[in-house]
Structure to design on (612 residues):
């Protein structure tokens, strides 16, 4: 890609502005751990909502989303349910309220709130920190692959070199440089700089998304799009099989479908639903979602933050994804993205290629700055959250609980840099974005769910059960792929999830029932303050005996209804911009109507009933 001087100037101006904001906010962040990791619980919920949306708008995820839409058409709207993307709806409806009532600093510290100070609680605390560090490092490697591949497409300099006999490609060098800049302002400014820069980055990204949408609408027509797509591409619905055949248009896309393992899409969809309910009810993994919940001012604002996120994230993001995809479908020559050695078409390069070929000078620099912002905001959120767990939940809790505030902040600098270095080393090991996505969402996330569902809904579940459930799940992540290979079972990561869930549930239940219940005072305090629904009857009766005015949570059915409506509402935000770009008028107006109806229902049965 050849960039004009103005495009390069826009990119550098953005980088300078980002670092300046981070350093400008650093004095506010360096007072103590509360300001460094949670900004002193002083940031309005709508800024946190914009920050949360910005943190979810990453380059790697956008590259894979363009690939999915290119290959699978409208059916690609279901694929993010692998994460599942609608865990944000569970947070919005009830989990954010439950979490924020704790008034703690990190997810690991929340463990003490739930399980007390027993030995089981300490073990649970430690394994949560270990999992948090693993998840951060895993995402670091995921980000390195995406930003390196992306940057090498548009920055003009060859930065490959050899170090100690090892060849470092331009992709890796660019990744290291951009990560270094992001780490610089994140280390210095803490959570203040994360949110401050992410709000600025969100504005840039939104403008860039609108620009791409306008370009796609002006440079393509309905007939051009129809001429290059197979039957069924514009349909959201599917049967047991995917039934998209690219043979007459782009046979390499059929190869990609087989490689992904999504031909039996109905079965994959059932697995996504099964895993999705478990993963969503478990709550956020210990990363930036948890951090933003705990940094809000009140429980109600925590819920409202997650209500804002889908609106400001999905609409502009999918406008960009659909715009880039349509430009590539209509104008791209597949030979330009085909590897001369392997003969394979690299679909993950569709995004940078389309920007290179079909976005005009000036707008190109703005769009690239927006995508850099997408990467930097997500990366900054992860590393800031990761260092919070190590410093607050290991060093402060077990090693130096009485150290000065500046010692903790200085250690946070060191830990953040260390996490980045380790993540980069894993990222340089190679791989592709799809494979890393599958492993993270299919297995690593799966190891977390059993213990974290039971902690909400069952009073008898104790710290030992949590620890052994998490440990069993993490062991399963390490050994299950090898076991499946040895048995000759070629299963996708999500298809291995039920086996992983059984292992984690067995560890949770056996570990729980083989050890005494947690301290009753701890259970009463947790139940009274958090007010979850579930199997809490023995504790509920004791709380009522102590405080007859206490009213338990009777909102299970209302919350379940709101979750279903919320998922449909969120889906409308995904498909509306896609139908707009591909000019499917009937489907566009149908889904606008669904959006209006579900918005009304959420207003009446969720928003109007929010309370602190």
């Amino acid at each position: 890609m050849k960039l004009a001087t103005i495009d390069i100037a826009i990119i550098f101006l953005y980088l300078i502005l980002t670092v300046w904001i981070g350093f400008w906010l650093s004095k506010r962040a360096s007072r103590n751990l509360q300001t460094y990791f949670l900004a002193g619980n002083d940031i309005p919920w709508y800024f946190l909502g914009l920050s949360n949306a910005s943190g979810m708008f990453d380059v790697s995820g956008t590259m894979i989303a363009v690939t999915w839409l290119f290959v699978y058409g409208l059916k690609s709207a279901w694929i993010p349910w692998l994460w599942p993307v609608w865990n944000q709806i569970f947070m919005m409806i009830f989990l954010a309220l439950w979490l924020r009532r704790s008034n703690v600093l990190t997810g690991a510290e929340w463990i003490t709130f739930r399980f007390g100070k027993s030995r089981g609680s300490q073990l649970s605390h430690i394994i949560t920190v270990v999992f948090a560090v693993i998840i951060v490092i895993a995402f670091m490697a995921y980000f390195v692959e995406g930003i390196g591949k992306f940057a090498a497409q548009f920055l003009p300099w060859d930065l490959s070199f050899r170090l100690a006999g090892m060849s470092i490609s331009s992709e890796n060098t660019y990744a290291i440089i951009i990560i270094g800049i992001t780490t610089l302002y994140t280390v210095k400014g803490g959570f203040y700089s994360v949110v401050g820069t992410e709000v600025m980055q969100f504005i840039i990204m939104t403008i860039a998304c609108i620009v791409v949408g306008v370009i796609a609408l002006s440079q393509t027509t309905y007939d051009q799009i129809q001429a290059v797509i197979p039957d069924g591409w514009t349909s959201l619905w599917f049967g047991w099989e995917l039934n998209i055949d690219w043979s007459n248009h782009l046979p390499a896309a059929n190869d990609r479908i087989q490689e992904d393992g999504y031909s039996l899409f109905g079965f994959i969809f059932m697995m996504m639903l099964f895993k999705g309910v478990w993963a969503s009810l478990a709550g956020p993994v210990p990363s930036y979602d948890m951090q933003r919940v705990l940094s809000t001012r009140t429980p109600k604002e925590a819920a409202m933050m997650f209500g804002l996120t889908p609106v400001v994230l999905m609409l502009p993001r999918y406008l960009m994804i659909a715009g880039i995809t349509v430009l590539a479908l209509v104008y791209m020559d597949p030979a330009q993205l085909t590897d001369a050695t392997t003969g394979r078409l690299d679909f993950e390069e569709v995004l940078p290629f389309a920007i290179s070929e079909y976005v005009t000078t000036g707008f190109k620099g703005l769009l690239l700055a927006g995508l850099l912002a997408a990467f930097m905001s997500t990366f900054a959120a992860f590393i800031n959250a990761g260092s919070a767990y190590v410093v607050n939940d290991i060093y402060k809790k077990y090693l130096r609980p009485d150290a000065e505030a500046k010692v903790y902040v200085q250690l946070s600098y060191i830990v953040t840099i260390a996490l980045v270095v380790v993540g980069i080393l894993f990222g340089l090991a190679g791989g592709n974005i799809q494979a890393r996505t599958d492993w993270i969402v299919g297995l690593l996330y799966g190891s977390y769910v059993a213990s974290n569902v039971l902690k909400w809904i069952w009073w008898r579940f104790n710290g030992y059960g949590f620890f052994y459930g998490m440990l069993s799940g993490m062991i399963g992540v390490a050994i299950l792929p090898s076991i499946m290979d040895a048995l000759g079972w070629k299963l996708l990561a999500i298809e291995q999830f039920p086996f992983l869930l059984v292992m984690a549930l067995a560890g949770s239940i056996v570990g729980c029932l083989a050890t005494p219940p947690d301290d009753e005072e701890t259970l009463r305090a947790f139940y009274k303050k958090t007010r979850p629904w579930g199997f809490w009857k023995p504790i509920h009766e004791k709380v009522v005996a102590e405080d007859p005015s206490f009213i338990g949570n009777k909102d299970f059915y209302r919350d379940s209804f709101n979750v279903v409506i919320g998922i449909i509402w969120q889906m409308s935000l995904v498909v509306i911009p896609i139908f707009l770009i591909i000019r499917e008028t009937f489907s566009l107006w149908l889904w606008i109507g669904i959006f209006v109806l579900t918005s009304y229902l959420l207003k009446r049965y969720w928003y109007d009933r929010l309370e602190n």
In short: The two ends are 52 Å apart (CA to CA). Residues 170-219 form the longest helix (50 residues).
